[in-house]
């Protein structure tokens, strides 16, 4: 069984690896990751590793969740778009640090499970949507922050359009799984500024939503 001790050990490990933002660490501490992983993996819920979830997808490694969250520099007025709800773990962490999260997932099964988990935890400021993340979520645009948790070759144009000026996107980009880089894209008055951050390994950002699942 995963325990409170495992959770504390994980937080200490994230600190050692360089996550310094106390609010981010606190948000991670406030989300029981064991509820987001498959029952077969509950014992490993607080290890700093990615784990398989339904529909052949993965829940990201806690360090990467913490790192991406820290780089978003969130505040409680921010409206955030997440592409790739997956287990909703990242969305749950974000929910503690911003005003509202809109999260898009292409699998209905994942979206349903995500909604169930969020409701169970009493999280009311995350809206999950089934759709194609390549298109973003125009009805709620523009967004202060956009976080993409699946990898693409280039940042989707629709997402760049839906990012507010002064806003920031964090997205894994790369040709192959072995060459992905987490990239920060700031939308400034002078245009887009890209900063490479960290080598990562995400599942691909697939085109189109799943038609039948
Ligand atoms: N943020 C998740 C991890 C997501 S894994 C978590 O915290 O658990 C990446 C997710 O992106 C998968 O669930 C996958 O189905 C989804 N995905 C891939 N391409 C997509 C697209 N075009 N639109 C929406 N979701 C997509």
SSE topology string:
HHEEHEHEHEEHEEE
Low-confidence stretches: none
* CATH homology-level superfamily of the domain at 63-199: Vaccinia Virus protein VP39
What class, by secondary structure content? Answer: alpha/beta
The hetero molecules present are: S-adenosyl-L-homocysteine
- Please give the count of helices: 6
Could you give the count of β-strands? 9
Widest sheet: strand order? 5-4-3-6-7-8-9
Name of the level-1 CATH class of the domain at 63-199: Alpha Beta
**Estimated helix fraction:** 25-40%
Which fold name is given in CATH as the topology of the domain at 63-199? Rossmann fold
Mean pLDDT: 95
Percentage of residues in strands: 25-35%
Largest sheet: 7 strands, mixed
State the distance separating the first and last CA atoms.
31 Å
Overall outline: globular
Topology:
Layout: H1 4-16, H2 22-29, E1 51-52, E2 58-59, H3 62-72, E3 79-83, H4 89-95, E4 100-105, H5 108-120, E5 126-130, E6 143-148, H6 157-161, E7 163-173, E8 181-188, E9 191-199
Parallel strand pairs: 3-4, 3-6, 4-5, 6-7
Antiparallel strand pairs: 1-2, 7-8, 8-9
S-adenosyl-L-homocysteine (SAH) is lined by residues 57-60, 83-84, 86-87, 89-90, 104-107, 110, 132-134, 149-150, 203, 205-206.
């Amino acid at each position: 069984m995963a325990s409170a001790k495992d959770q504390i050990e994980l937080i200490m490990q994230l600190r050692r690896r360089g996550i310094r933002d106390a609010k981010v660490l606190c948000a991670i501490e406030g989300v029981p990751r064991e509820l987001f992983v498959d029952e077969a993996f509950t014992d490993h819920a607080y290890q700093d590793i990615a784990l398989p979830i339904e529909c052949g997808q993965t829940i990201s490694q806690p360090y990467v969740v913490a790192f991406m969250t820290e780089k978003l520099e969130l505040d409680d007025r921010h409206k955030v778009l997440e592409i790739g709800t997956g287990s909703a773990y990242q969305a749950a962490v974000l929910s503690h640090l911003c005003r509202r999260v809109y999260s898009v997932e292409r699998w209905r099964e994942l979206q349903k499970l995500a909604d169930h988990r969020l409701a169970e935890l009493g999280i009311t400021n995350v809206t999950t949507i089934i759709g194609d993340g390549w298109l973003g979520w125009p009805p709620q645009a523009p967004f202060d922050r956009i976080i993409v948790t699946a990898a693409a070759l280039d940042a989707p144009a629709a997402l760049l359009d839906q990012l507010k000026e002064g806003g920031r996107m964090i997205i894994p980009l790369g040709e192959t799984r072995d060459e992905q880089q987490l990239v920060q894209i700031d939308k400034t008055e002078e245009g887009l500024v890209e900063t490479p951050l960290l080598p990562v390994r995400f599942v691909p950002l697939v085109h189109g939503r799943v038609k039948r699942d």
